[in-house]
Design goal:
The complex is a heterodimer of chains A (373) and B (258). Chain A is α/β, with parallel strands linked by helices and 373 residues long. Chain A has eleven helices and four strands, in the order E-E-E-H-E-H-H-H-H-H-H-H-H-H-H. Chain A has two domains: 74 residues, Transcription Regulator spoIIAA, CATH 3.30.750; 246 residues, no CATH class. The radius of gyration of chain A is 35 Å and the shape is elongated. Classes of the chains: A alpha/beta (373), B alpha/beta (258). Chain B: One of its GO terms (molecular function) is ATP binding.
Chain lengths: 373, 258
């Protein structure tokens, strides 16, 4: 620090002095109040060999920061009035100590490869975490079956209502509309060949095998999977889950088990309701657009559409339900302490659940094709 | 030192039928640290929120630097906003921003280059007693004490004349709390701040405050130094300043002074 020279008397105090910075040669002369607003003065960004601060009348931390930074950059700071020195000393004393940068610089090839590696690692870890949560669910289920009195029956019934019964209206509406759309499109295309009657086969097979269950799963993923993540995430954020652990309450058993079990049990029921609504929609459309009477529609359905199609569709339902619930719970437990991560995890949970459902559906298709169903 | 920077006259605050303040008068002098004490539910935080303009009292007038807080024009509001800094109880940091970005938030109003802003933020973080690497962290990654320091760094970002601290030492361990007391005292002396400090902590009152105002019976019951308040004949005030905890805090201060 430069030796202090006695402060000059402040100029005429009738009007508040304005800040000014003038660069003469290598010397930057500052006068008036050196406050944070002064830092946007264009003259302040030029480099100078010395700074004459003898006419500075007031100083704030930002001003002191400017002087100290200049001093550390090899510039001589002279003449700061005595009464402003303590602030400069305080700023100098608590100057941030920047540690050396470690790791590869961002933007380099090595950095990009490292980023890619981290993403792949994170993806594998998140896949493994799903397996972990499946294991936790099964272990909790086994424990609950061994000690039936610990079984969270009330909670299970509550969640069955929330994920099952309360989802019926939206599942019925969507499946009905899909039946209508398939019947209408099928009739329009098949009429060209004079084969309108096959519309019934088309609706039956498409709705029963794939569409009803897939759409139900997507609706449930958006509705219930997101709700699971948000509910568990909020509990995680408010340390409720930690509190449960300290009270010797197993979160796997009280939170995850009833949710996953409820969705696994309710999903086939929802899918069956979806099947019926889809077939009903197809029937309504066939009657309205093709003049196929309900009696003929039902007769042809039961004759030409084998019950294995319904079986193939429904057998997927519990698997999809379990996948959605486990993903929802797992992402909920990943939520950290901040509100941002709750939102991020909720949307990630829906995306992951829909993705998982479609991948599993593809797997089922290959499997059923191989076994000839 | 003698002219009041905040004046409150006839403040009445109520939530529904529940009256919190009734006919409350208080002056805060320029350059002092005023401690506000009072039992739970006497409206200490409510008073703070009324002064900074988050709450409008049912009656009465609050002026800060000569501007009536609740009848100020837009321009006056902006002027007031620049000269106030508030540290809320748990820091109230924005959870989606890092500590450094949190401290930069008040500076965004000024026309500063981004580099200057972030270096100034680093300086404030360091002045609040946080380590260098805290700047890049998110509030959820910090301990309670560090969040309070970060909250103080944000409150001091623009060197406001007036700083409001709501229970700055609550929930800190005694060592951390007394470090915080020294920090507040030191920053006040070098920056020439006026501090409005709501606290329950007797040690903080001893270590920091120039003057103490006691809230009770819906008004400011008394103001003065600890010694003056100790002689006041009111059951709550007497119990507060002469109870076992108060004596322990006094002895500690006396030992420190030796």
């Amino acid at each position: 620090m430069q030796p202090a020279t006695p402060g000059e008397p402040s100029p005429d105090s009738a009007s508040p002095p304005r800040f000014s910075a003038t660069l003469t040669g290598e010397c930057l002369i500052l006068s008036g109040p050196l406050r944070v607003q002064a830092l946007s003065d264009p003259a302040m960004t030029r480099s100078a060999a010395t700074i004459d601060a003898s006419a500075v009348t007031a100083l704030d931390t930002a001003g002191a920061w400017f002087l100290e930074k200049a001093r550390r950059g090899g510039c001589k700071v002279t003449g700061l009035p005595q009464e402003l020195q303590p602030l400069l000393r305080q700023v100098a004393a608590s100057w941030p100590q920047r540690p050396k940068e470690t790791g590869p610089p961002r933007g380099s090839l090595r950095g990009a490869v490292e980023q890619l590696g981290r993403h792949v690692g994170a993806a594998i870890a998140s896949l493994l975490a799903l397996v972990e949560y499946l294991g936790r669910f099964l272990a909790a289920l086994a424990r609950a079956l061994r000690h039936p009195r610990q079984f969270p029956l009330t909670s299970l019934v509550y969640h069955c209502q929330a994920v099952g019964l309360n989802a019926v209206p939206i599942v019925v509406t969507i499946s009905f509309l899909i039946g209508v759309v398939i019947a209408y499109q099928g009739a329009y295309q098949l009429r060209a060949f004079g084969a309108e009657i096959f519309t019934i086969d088309l609706v039956g097979i498409a709705v029963l095998r794939e569409l009803a269950i897939l759409l139900t799963a997507i609706v449930v993923a958006g509705r219930t999977g997101a709700a699971f993540t948000a509910a568990l995430g909020a509990m995680k954020m408010r340390e409720e889950i930690d509190a449960m652990r300290t009270l010797d309450i197993d979160p796997d058993q009280t939170l995850i088990l009833p949710r996953v079990l409820a969705l696994t049990l309710m999903m086939p029921i929802l899918a069956l309701i979806g099947d019926i609504a889809g077939l009903f929609g197809g029937g309504v459309m066939a009657w309205a657009a093709l003049d196929i009477s309900p009696a003929i529609y039902v007769a042809r359905l039961s004759q030409n559409v084998d019950v294995t199609h319904a079986f193939v569709g429904l057998v997927k339902a519990p698997v999809f339900g379990m996948l959605i619930a486990i993903i929802g719970c797992r992402f909920g437990m990943q939520v950290g302490g901040d509100t941002e991560s709750l939102g991020r995890m909720t949307s990630a949970s829906v995306v992951a659940a829909i993705f998982a459902v479609i991948v599993a559906d593809a797997g089922f298709s290959i499997f059923f094709a191989q076994v000839g169903l | 030192m003698s002219d009041p920077i905040i004046t409150m006259r006839g403040i009445r605050t109520q939530f529904g039928p529940k009256v919190i303040h009734d006919g409350l008068d208080l002056d805060v002098m320029r350059g002092e640290i005023l401690g506000i004490v009072g039992g739970s539910g006497t409206g200490k935080s409510v008073l703070l929120r009324s002064i900074v303009g988050l709450l409008t009292p049912a009656a009465g007038q609050i002026t800060v630097k000569g501007i009536d807080v609740h009848r100020a024009s837009g321009r006056e509001h902006a002027l007031l906003g620049r000269s106030l800094g508030v540290m809320f109880q748990d820091g109230a940091l924005f959870s989606t921003l890092t500590v450094r970005e949190n401290v930069e938030v008040p500076m965004r109003r000024l026309d500063l280059p981004a580099g200057v802003r972030s270096e100034l933020a680093d300086l404030k973080i360091s002045m609040a007693g946080l380590p260098w690497d805290a700047g890049g962290k998110y509030p959820s990654e910090l301990s309670g004490g560090m969040r309070k320091r970060a909250g103080l760094a944000r409150a001091l970002a623009l060197d406001p004349e007036l700083v409001f601290l709501d229970e700055p030492t609550a929930g800190l361990d005694p060592i951390g709390a007394s470090e915080f007391d020294r920090l507040i005292r030191g920053l006040t002396d070098t920056l020439g701040l006026t501090v409005f400090l709501v606290t329950h902590d007797l040690d903080t009152l001893h270590a920091c405050c120039d003057r103490i105002a006691v809230l009770a019976e819906k008004r400011v019951l008394a103001t003065g130094s600890i010694d003056q308040l100790r002689r006041i004949d009111h059951p709550w005030v007497h119990e507060y300043f002469n109870g076992p905890r108060a004596r322990a805090a006094m002895e500690q201060t006396a030992r420190k002074d030796d």
